[in-house]
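Q: Give me the 3D complex with zinc ion.
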Amino acid sequence: MGDRIVTGLAHQFWLRCEHAEPLFSADELQWAQPEEVERFRALGFLRTAAMATRAVCDACDDGHAEDVVWIRNAQTGLLAPFLPCPEVGGAPVNPERLQRWAIDLDLTAGELRNQMGLVGHLAPILPGRVWSLGRRHLAGRFRDFFFVCGATWPDTHTLWDRCRYIEDAPSPVILVPTRPPGGDSWRAKSVPVFRLADVGCFTESGLTLDLAYIEDAVPRDVYAMPAKSVSSFPVTDGAMWDELRITVRETAIVADLRGTSREFGTEELGFAGADDRLWQLLCVFASVGGQTPARNTSVSDKDAITLRKQVSNLRQRLAMIFPIAGDSIRSVHGTGAYRCIFKIGLDRRDGFPAPPERWDECRFTELRDGRISIAVKSKEVFAARTISEEPQRRTAIEAAERAGVRTEDYDLRVLGLADQSGVPTSEGRLLLEFLRSGGKLNRRGDDKDLLRLAQRLRTWMGIDGDPFQFSPSRRLWSAVFECQSHRAKVP
Ligand SMILES: [Zn+2]
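A: Here is the predicted complex, encoded as C-alpha cells.
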C-alpha cells in the first residue's frame, strides 16, 4: 500500500506546536478522523497527557467552561467527574472527554532529523521550545538545522540571545511549525526559515519533508564562499572538534581525526593561495598554537571587527571541510581573543608545533612510560599578528597575555635523544637527569654532552635563547625550563 497523504489533523498539529501547552483535548480530536488520530498516536507524535481539570459544559447550550469537580458516586463509592452548571445545576462528565493528548515535540524533533538524514548533535537548546537537529550538506555547504516553536511569543526578543548556537552556526536553517520569527530582534533576516506546515507532510508511515524544496530555497552563495567546490573530510558521526588536529604546511594542511589522516592542498580547501586572507589567518592560528592573544586597547574597533569577520568566515570554511557540529573557533569571553577548539600547529615534524618565545614558558616532564611531555604555557606578553582589511598589510595589532597551554608528548627517539632501540644517547640521558633532579646538575662549564643537548633543544623548540644557565662558582647547571619526572631517580 502506497503512502496516502493524511491532511486534516496535520495542519492542526503544526498550529498546536506553537502553543505554550501543545496538546489536544478529547473534544478537539473528535473532529479528526479516528484512524488519523490513532496513527498519530501509534507513531508517537501524540501521547496521553494528564486529564483535563476544566471542560466545556455539554449539559446546556451555553458552551461555558468550568472546573471539573470530583464527586463520590453513592452507589459505586468511586469518585466521578462532575461539571457544575448555573443553567441546569450540573451534570456528570464522561471521563473520556477529559482525556488529553500532548504533542511529543522531542520525538517530532527526532523525526525531522531522521527525515533529513542529519548527523551530529540532536539536543534541545531550550527544552520544549528550541532544538538543534544536526547538520548535513545541502545546496553547496554544510548547514545546521534548528527546530523552533513559539518564535512569535512575546519573549522572542530574548529568545535568540538564549540560543547562541543558532547565532554562531555558520549556516543555520530554521524550521518552525507555522510561525516564522518576525521583528528586529531577529538578527538573521538572511537565515532561511521554513514552515513545517508547508514543507512537512504526514503519510501513513510517518513524517516526511520536502527536502528538494528546502534545497532550492536556501541561498547558495554567501561571502567567502569559494568559487570551486571544497573537499571535505570523512567525519564519523558524533566526532567533536576537539578530536581534530590540523597541521599546517606551506601549501597544505594535514587533518587527523579518530585515526584517519588526510592531506588537503590549499586549492582543495578553496583558498586562493598564499595571499588568501583566510589561509593567512589559519597560519596565524597555527603559529600561536590555536589561540590569539587578548585584544589590546591600541587595537581599533575597525580592526577588531575585521578580525571577527575573518574568524567567522574561517569558521564557515572549516565547517564545509569538516562536517562537525558546533563551533570550531570560539571567542574567549571578554578578551577579544579567539581559540580554536581543534588542535592546530605548524608542520614542524622536527620540532614543537607552536614555538614558544622563551624557555621559562616550557615544562618538560618525563612520563611513566618513558616519553617526554613538553608543555608550553605562555604567561608573557607577546605580539601576535593579524591581517588587516587592506591586502598584504599585516599589522601587529595585539600584545597581550596568552592563556593557552600546549602539550605534546614525544618518544626520546623522536626527539633525537635515543637510538633506534630506544636507548637514550648521552644527551638523552642528561636530559632525563635534569628532569629527575628538578633541573639542577653539577657539571663542568664546557660539558660537551650538555652543550649538544642545549643545541638539540633549541632546534626542537625553535627558541634562540639558552635552555641552561651555568653558575661557575658552584659549577652548577640550571635548566631555564621547568623540569619534572614521574619516574624514579636515574639508576
Ligand atoms: Zn451549562
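A quick observation: The pocket of zinc ion is lined by residues 57, 59-60, 62, 64, 85, 87-88 (CB under 6 Å).
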